[in-house]
Amino acid sequence: xxxxxxxxxxxxxxxxxxxxxxxxxxxxxxxxxxxxxxxxxxxxxxxxxxxxxxxxxxxxxxxxxxxxxxxxxxxxxxxxxxxxxxxxxxxxxxxxxxxxxxxxxxxxxxxxxxxxxxxxxxxxxxxxxxxxxxxxxxxxxxxxxxxxxxxxxxxxxxxxxxxxxxxxxxxxxxxxxxxxxxxxxxxxxxxxxxxxxxxxxx
Length: 202
Hints:
Residues 145-202 are annotated as: Domain III. Its main location: cytoplasm. There is one protein chain. The chain is of the alpha+beta class. The chain has 3 domains: 4-62, CATH 2.40.50.140; 65-130, DNA polymerase, domain 1, CATH 1.10.150.20; 147-201, Ubiquitin-associated (UBA) domain (Helicase, Ruva Protein, domain 3). The chain is 48% helix and 19% strand. Strands 1-2-3-5-4 form a 5-stranded mixed β-barrel. The N and C termini lie far apart (36 Å).
């Protein structure tokens, strides 16, 4: 198995990046949040796993080993393939996913594209005992953590969208539209929502 790749980023697409390793450009499929952290021309290191099929070899990349382990765990469930597992990682952050599985929260799981109530129930039944729900935050922990200024988050997400190849004006409009509805959105949530908005406008 290809456990990780490291090298300069040659290209960034909507669902993959090309990373040069030993003079070879490897196409690495990844979630928007992972792609948003990459920059063309800069070195990147991604945790990876290679999915082998009769007709293809597909490399999937992740920001860290934790996301990769969840990606692999999801595929142990009947009917969940690599594309749906990646969509799950894209929509739900690791802690949110683990908590939803442990608590049997079908409302959260059905937010994943392609996952209906029956599929969500199957995920809970098969994975509930295989994940550990994150510990609850201590009282006052949220207040103690100073949130990033809205402007800084906006600039970070706009830059990520530019890195993905979107023109600056549509990228800024998409980000501003999301911020107008959810001014306290985190960078990760903001990026996902902006990508969704840009996808609908195409």
